[in-house]
Amino acid sequence: MKKKVLTVDDSRTMRDMVSFTLKGAGYDVVEAADGQQALGVIGANKVDLVITDLNMPVMDGLTLIRRLRATPAHRTLPILMLTTEADEKKKSEGRAVGATGWIVKPFNPEKLISVVQKVCG
Amino acid sequence: MEDLSRFKQTYFDESAELLEVAESGLLRLTPGEVDSDEVNAIFRAVHSIKGGGGAFGFTELVAFAHEFETVMDGVRNNTVPVTTELVDTLIRANDLLGQMLAYAREGDPAPAGTTDGTVAALRRHLSGGAPQVQAPAAAPAAPPPAPVYADDEDDEAGLFGDAMAAIAAARAEEDPVPPGKLRWTIVFRPRSDLLMSGNEPAFMLRALRRLGDATVECHTNALPNLQNLEAELLHLSWTVTLIADPDIDLDKINDVFEFVADDCDIRITAEAPPPAAPEAPPVTDPVPVATATPPAVVAAVPETPKAEAPKAEAARPRPNGGGAEHAGLTSHTIRVDLDKIDRLVNMVGEMVITQAMIAEHVRELPPGEFQELLEGLEQLAQHTRELRESVMSIRAQPVSSVFSRMPRLVRECAATTGKEVQLVTSGETTEVDKTVVENLVDPLTHMIRNSIDHGLEGPEERERVGKPRAGTVHLSAQHRSGRIVIEITDDGRGINRPKVLSKAIEKGLVQPGAALSDEEIDNLIFLPGFSTADQVSNLSGRGVGMDVVRRNITSLGGRIGVYSTPGEGSRFVLSLPLTLAVLDGMVISVGEERFVLPLTNIVESLRPKAADLHGLVGKCDVMMARGEYVRLVYLHQLFGIPGAVADPTRALVVLVETEDGSRLGLVVDEVLGQQQVVIKSLEANFRRLDGVAAATILGDGRVALILDVAGLREMSRHMDSRAPRSPSSPAAALPAPALEPV
């Protein structure tokens, strides 16, 4: 069974790139433009991995992670932060709310795939 | 690997939208009343442009976006105060970002020093805040020195790990490493709550397997007995022995544990084959492999932070909770090539015609029979109408894309004229056909300039007459009876009628002594060659006057009028059709021919009495209508149609008005009725004809020409000085309505 990845980003370019790269690597990809939409998508799909941007309108990435972790069903769902914030502070903030890991933008497709494999097999 | 350049188009499209978001946000940025949602939206726009730019390797663009972003971040964190000067700098920066995008799109490097001035200006605003100006992220920067990790602060875990490492090392001694390989011993003891972060040790072990030949040993000694077992906690630890090629270095192994290094006790040791073996160890410097002696050297420890260019993020972005108003920016949309939509519009047009044809035939059926067929057709007609409206609505766009350009214009005009101006807009979400939207930019730009330049008074003059110093220009849009109505209202001095009148007389546009109503005088400003400014100013006097505005508007099938009250201001009212694909027309007959007259041109139709008709010797016939002489144009003469009614007292005269306001009486046989017609381009299907704007197909399947009133007037003028009919009369001097072909 193909694993399903949800990419959450307010930038269409980013969503397209993540989606295209992962589909090429054999994953199913669903998209959402902000945290609020992401919650809706997760409600309707069984998702194996969430890749989320942090800075987004309506609901930002950290809030999304917090909301997901507060749901028993998603306590162990892998969630990657996709962000240009390379600083440690951002990462630890993400980890504190329960992010699984992070991908630093700009990323290359190989890096994305390897990180995705690392957290969802 | 996939080529990411295929996303460049998306990136540039999106960036263009983001630039607009940033610009409109910046224009609303007012010192003293900073809206944090607004600031966040601007920050995000710049941030997204930077992020995407990085993916495509646009280093110059990213470097500049970074400077811009840094200042926006300062604004967000209130470390950079919002001043008018700052807003100006940011607007310039946004423009420059647009230019950098253009360079990147063309694949050209930006000329050296393009960004220098703006970067310097941006940094000046930062200097007041925290000393955080750093090299741009894209510039190669030395990675921070990897901290040398001594031991885990968790003593217990540390001891435990050491013990296991020792065991592993001991075992290594009795089992030599194969030649040409490296043997890694990885002791991995995760914290018990590791699963709660969504990390899964099994995937990490799997990842290690991908690096080489791995033997995994699982330690279950920490496993509690079943009644104490917490299912969501992790009680296992592992020792992995990995025989790998020399190109697998410590970084690659550490990378597997990238996300969990802080939550785990990880010991990694490496050993090379015995000295006899060929020189194997990699030279990558962080790999501390002892090449000399077989006993393994405890090499490295948990995690060396990934080397990254230092970022100049001043501080963490705040989560932005309540930005719901920006939700519209990321609505669910798809991008479709315009050609595809136009094909769809075209097909729907054909369908409307076919439907009308069937309806026509059905009308001839004996009444009372075929009831079900008639009902079905009625439904078909209903659905066709709805389908057409839906398809047309795909092409519809909110006027906000035009309105959003105006604050900038107002700002510039205010600066140039030294006037204080406040722009109020409303009805931005009103939708209208894309082509109409695009064609609104120039007229609106000109009219707003005109309002500020001519309408509004300077601040001192305003104070003298008891008005607020800042003048207000109100730009609004709304749907009204199937058209879009755009109004530009200013609270300035209003139109100076005596001045307008004397100027019009001076220019020969009005006869001296002519009695004109106030409204007529006001509308003189739309006449070609009229300019009220005493001196041609930098703003309005760019070689175009209100006549050009009117021509643009009428060429879209629109009308424009002005209502002015001296001392209180002026109101310009534009009314435009919602689409250029369908036209409200009046079907008329001349002989056996049918023509369509755009409804917007028609004033009235009447049957003149013989007493109203006058012939001008050697010239045209004129008719007295509502107190003015109107030139009569015989369509049957103009187009050479036999069998038409030639006597106006037995025929009908349709009074039409051209775009410059002059009137014409068209002599036709009959007025058949009002109808919405689908516009077919004549040029695309045949060739341009004088006096004809386009064609359409009527319900009975006949082709009817849509008349261009201004063209007819030109043709009739040429006929005055020639033989009754000239097949090759020169093209009309006024442009034919730019009707959108369907």
Automatic annotation (TrEMBL), chain A:
Asked if the Swiss-Prot or TrEMBL record annotates the protein with the keyword Phosphoprotein, the reply is yes
Q: Which UniProt keywords apply?
A: Phosphoprotein
- The protein's name is Response regulator
Pfam families in UniProt: Response_reg
Name the source organism: Azospirillum aestuarii
The UniProt entry, under Gene3D superfamilies, shows: 3.40.50.2300
What range(s) does the Response regulatory domain occupy? Answer: 4-120
UniProt-listed InterPro entries: Bact_response_regulator, CheY-like_superfamily, Sig_transdc_resp-reg_receiver
